[in-house]
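4.2 Preliminary Data

To establish feasibility before requesting continued support, the project team ran the inverse folding procedure on a target of 97 residues. The structure was first converted into the token representation described in Section 3, and no sequence information of any kind was made available to the design step. The complete token record follows.
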């Protein structure tokens, strides 16, 4: 199970990156059950909406994902996300096949 965050480019990329990499990711790392996080910088969009960054946060299974999403650590990370990425982020979750 993974949580996927797609980010559109911020009007201030330097401020976004400072907040994202130095504050937000350390908060996400505290989420219970999080096994790993993979960050991808999108270099070019070929078809569809353009995005700047993708984060994939991996959990062992649906139960650990649900527990993490209800945790105080994830609530703190979500509150933080809204301070610099409101209107820029799309969140989804799914399973790999």
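Position-by-position output of the design step:
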């Amino acid at each position: 199970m993974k949580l996927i965050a797609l980010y559109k480019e911020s009007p201030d990329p330097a401020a976004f990156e400072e907040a994202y990499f130095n504050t937000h990711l350390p908060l996400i790392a505290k989420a219970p059950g999080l096994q790993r996080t993979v960050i991808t910088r999108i270099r070019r969009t070929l078809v569809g909406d353009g995005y700047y960054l993708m984060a994939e946060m991996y959990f062992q299974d649906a139960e650990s994902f649900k527990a993490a999403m209800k945790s105080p650590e994830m609530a703190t990370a979500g509150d933080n996300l809204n301070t610099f990425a409101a209107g820029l982020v799309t969140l989804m979750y799914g399973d790999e096949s």
